[in-house]
Amino acid sequence: MHARTRRNCIIFLPNLLVSSHSLGTMCIGAFIWQAHPLYPLLLIQNRDEYRNRPTKALAWWDVDGVEILGGRDEVGGGTWLACTRQGRVAFLTNVLELHPHPDAKTRGDLPLLFLESTKSPMEFAHELAADAHRYNGFNLIVADIPSKSMVYISNRPMGEPVSIQQVSPGLHVLSNAKLDSPWPKAQRLGKGFKQMLNQYGKTQVMVKEMVEKLMKDKVKADKSKLPGICDLDWEFSLSSVFVEVDTPLGMYGTRSTAALAIRAGGQVSFYENCLEEGVWFERTINYTIN
Ligand SMILES: *[C@@H]1O[C@H](CO)[C@@H](O)[C@H](O)[C@H]1NC(C)=O
Asked: What is the pTM of this model?
């Protein structure tokens, strides 16, 4: 079984590399929700993409009259992490899979659909469920800070009903499988995040320090612990929290690291460390939820 899977993957690998759509944005994020003394939500996330894919750095943009703060993918027009003045937050990761559909709808639109809507996270999730099969595998988290509601939505495994789950208070890690799946890098990040939060205790988190220690981590997983969905060498390259891999289509890897810290009083601090033409730039945009 294992040998067969690997052979399929090797045949598949060139396709994987040729179609930038199929690999897409493989993000990893860790967050603590409704369980920290200062922050109802504290999230750190890496976005992995081809380095040459046009991207707009963290900024406010207007989407059909709604002000949205986040980075933006200029190819698909969507985002992987963004929030609004009203305190709606959405973030997305792709599910690692062998045969994504080239004609599927753009997953990067999913966060925008939620941010533009006025539905509660749960209502939105049920509305999206009807349409979820038209996208490749995704994990989407949508939250409304004022009403303390956060919902996880995923359209995988294929053939099963769309999974919709209220996110429980506590620490969670989202990579390229179901929420809190014990993938090696997700476990490593979760453990590191927990340790750092314990160190800070009830004091303000030093976002840059945390991002530097946890999100720039290039330690790879033990090959025997990889999920074995694709070619093992490829999975090995993607097995660190910070990814950097040379492909025939150019460098692929982490090109944006973000931290979103929302305080109980509604003060939002969105930090991004983003690679722009080979240079890492830092930005922080602060605002207060209306
Ligand atoms: C934004 O807020 C953070 C956290 O409160 C603070 O450390 C930082 O100095 C603020 N930055 C700006 C540009 O206002």
From this structure: 0.90
Q: Give the residue ranges of DSSP H helices in the chain.
A: 2-18, 20-23, 109-116, 121-129, 184-200, 207-215, 232-237
| Statement: residue 6 has pLDDT above 90 | no
What is the per-residue pLDDT across 138-171, written as a single tens digit (0 to 9) for each? Answer: 999 999 999 999 999 999 988 889 999 999 999 9
Task: Report d(CA 285, CA 205) in Å as an integer.
Answer: 16
CA of 1 to the centre of ligand 1 (A): 52
Q: Are 68 and 61 in contact (CB under 8 A)?
A: yes
Q: What is the CA radius of gyration of the chain?
A: 18
Query: Vertex 59, ends 55 and 61: CA angle to 5°?
Result: 95
CATH of 2-288, one of 3.40.50.300, 3.90.45.10, 3.60.60.10, 3.40.50.10540: 3.60.60.10
Q: Please indicate whether residue 286, judged by its CB atom, sits closer than 6 Å to ligand 1.
A: yes
Q: Where are the domains of the chain?
A: 2-288
Average pLDDT over residues 32-48: 97
- Given this model, what pLDDT does residue 9 score? 31
Which of 49, 11, 10, 52 has its CA nearest to residue 28? 49
Which atom of ligand 1 is nearest the CA belonging to 263?
5
Q: Where are the alpha helices (DSSP H) in 28-145?
A: 109-116, 121-129
Ligand 1 site-directed mutation target among 269, 282, 287, most atoms within 8 Å of CB: 269
| 217 Cα distance to chain centroid | 16
Instruction: Give the residues across from 170 on adjacent strands.
Output: 33
What's 62's DSSP letter?
Answer: E
Q: Which residue has the higher pLDDT, 235 or 71?
A: 71
Arithmetic mean of pLDDT over the chain: 88
